[in-house]
Amino acid sequence: MKSLLIFSSLCVLLVESKTIIEAKQSVRKFPDGFIFGAATASYQIEGGWDADGKTENIWDHMTHKEPCLIADCSNGDVADDSYNLYKRDVEMMRELGLQFYRFSLSWNRILPTSFPDKINEAGVQYYNNLINEMLKYNIEPMITLYHWDLPQKLQDMGGWANPHIVDWFADYARVAFENFGDRVKYWITMNEPREVCYQGYGDVTKAPRLNMKGIGEYMCAKNLLVAHAKAYDIYDKEFREKWGGTVGITLSATWHEPEGDMDADLAETINQFEWGQYAHPIFSETGDFPPIMKEMIAAKSAEQGFYRSRLPEFTPEELELVRGSSDFLGINHYSTFLVRKIDERDSFEVPSYWDDMEIVRYQPEEWEGGASSWLKVVPSGFYKLLHRLRELYDNPPIMITENGFSTRGGLEDDNRVSYYRLYLDAMLDAMDEGCDVIGYAAWSLMDNFEWMQGYTERFGLYEVDYSSPERTRTPRKAAFVYKEILRSRSLDPNYVPDTTVMTIDGVNS
Ligand code: BGC
């Protein structure tokens, strides 16, 4: 009976995504005011790891100490060399016709001691050059303050598990607002707290690989949320009136589907742990961590002999500071998982995040996917996610800050073209129903250092040749298709690009 249920729910999901895959042969328009961009992150593209006074971050530290933790034993020492090649990057933005470009700042490049006692002029100059070059061509800069490259010195003092990081981050944010806020109107405090905390503190799949299961990720989550809120508060009180920008946070939001009809509440529980953990404190009316998380972790902690819940509590002041601390909700979405209840097949460490949830997630092998093991093509999951976010948080303005597909390289990336079309189509479905999606950034402008996978997984609209000292960038088919979507402000499933020559035209010329 159970297997029948599983089979039928799989079919439903496949049929649903199939419906979307096969539907909409007509051209669909994007609304006026909707903005398109592309995204990158400092450690993944800049290189110049010790250039002009920059000091060591946790990724420098980890990849230098144990190179072969990374799939191809590589690192971000040179990466795409954007520290030197930023003008070519801006040229690519112009070729694509981007309205905005999302990039992140390297904390160590700006503050080599980690603190504001010494501001590195060369680091500030680098970002000024990049920003000014973009503005020359009407490309709006969108800055992420923290995209995973914490100063190693701060990590040595506990990093996100140390509550003092709230002030350390707030100081860094203030320096960034002061130096760039006159020209930068879109700010994102954090990229994907879930990956920072769960993967870096509760597991070993991102630096600093602390593996403090069931404890580290929750301490990190609380401190990170308060640090985010403090930075938001600083902007709000000190800079907003003068410069009129907006500040948000970017969450990774994977969609989860129940394996069978009886498991619907499981999908809701894991969604609450995975992204509700960060969205609920900021975007819900009541604030605080999701009630289901609080209950489950408190009960487990008591059972396990802890004197208090492993999920730290916000003080009433912190709760109020965090509640409402975002002008928009940044969403990085890539894929969907099925979920089922934990059973005798599974064994999780105790305590741990997964044991707290008592849920297992997986993706059927037959689902079509990219080069990344976790990236399966399920556009209906994107639609459902947007729908649920609208329901849960009173239809907040949503900025899609990342969405994209990985290959092993090559310019003929038809799978990536098809992924972008399907996901944009699903996004338009959600928007037609009233979801307030205000913009979309493709991940990524170009290939880059894909964290533990090094350069083995490629997400770029532009291919980067890592064997050439110039790090030559060449547009893939998807770049031509994306350019046409932006030019025509519409999605034409039948458009066939001429990929012989990439030109600069339109608004950014
Ligand atoms: C991150 C990016 C990463 C991408 C693909 C997101 O989780 O923000 O840095 O490269 O996904 O894995």
From TrEMBL:
It comes from the Eukaryota. The keyword Methyltransferase does not apply. Keywords: Glycosidase, Hydrolase, Signal. Transmembrane segments: none annotated. It holds the Pfam family Glyco_hydro_1. Residues 1-17 form the signal peptide. The keyword Signal applies. InterPro entries: GH, GH_1_N_CS, Glyco_hydro_1. PANTHER family: GLYCOSYL HYDROLASE, LP05116P. Belongs to the glycosyl hydrolase 1 family. This is Seminal fluid protein.
